[in-house]
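To make the argument concrete, we let one protein speak, a sequence paired with a row of structure tokens, as a model reads it:
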Amino acid sequence: MDKRVPRDFETLRATILERRASLPKRIAQIAAYALDNPDDIAFGTAASIAASAGVQPSTLIRFAQQLGFDGFTSLQQVFRERLRERNSSYDERLAALRAKAEEGAGHRAIFDGFVAAASTSLSDISRALNDAHFEEAVTLLAKAETIYVLAKRRSYPVASYIAYALGKLKIRNQLVESAAGLNAEMIGFATPRDAVIAISFSPYAPATIEETRSIAEQGVPIVAITDSSFSPLAQFAKIWFEVAEADFGGFRSISATMALAMALTVAVGEKRRDAGRKRKT
């Protein structure tokens, strides 16, 4: 491989993100799939990966060559090396719990499986969270006159908690939901003096994406919580957090997302309280 070819996963990821706007449509599609499903890329065959990503196998070769590799196998080695470097204790535990459940170990194994998945998610976000990034989001939200909260489907419990906690902290907020279908009118009141917390994960709720797009066009700064740099939320957000949640039996945890939401909410409350004290002195 050429010296300029990414030799580790983080460099590869950064290279893909840097070039994503210029990638052809199908190659961008496999690039997004690769970042969202790195384990599948590491161990899948070209045929199975292409089928899962919805592209032709030849696209995988073009994707690898676009990044400077001589073929898909060379690119795949970077993904395999990532797995070897990871601390796999939680992953191994989760695999063992899945096996126990399948062997009839009882409902306790299901409970333990979800606990292990939650632990994996929390461990991952603890390692990945950028302190400066987090502080920037807290500062942005603390300055807002009103914080709008957008989420649907699996993300809705997180949004509901954020709105509840902000209310308890006496921070003006608006959870964007309306049985009468008045969401557009609700977000129409938002101004650049406000801020938005938008949450969505693949396959991304269309209503959340459309509402986020609309409010971004109004000049309102957005803090997004999502699962990929290729998420449609990322393109609208001033600040965004990538949260990778583990799953058990196909049921994905929201533990890391909830922890991030709680931390953001409480930190915003602290920031506003500190600012209030300074104004009084």
About this structure: Residues 45 and 57 are 9 Å apart (CA to CA).
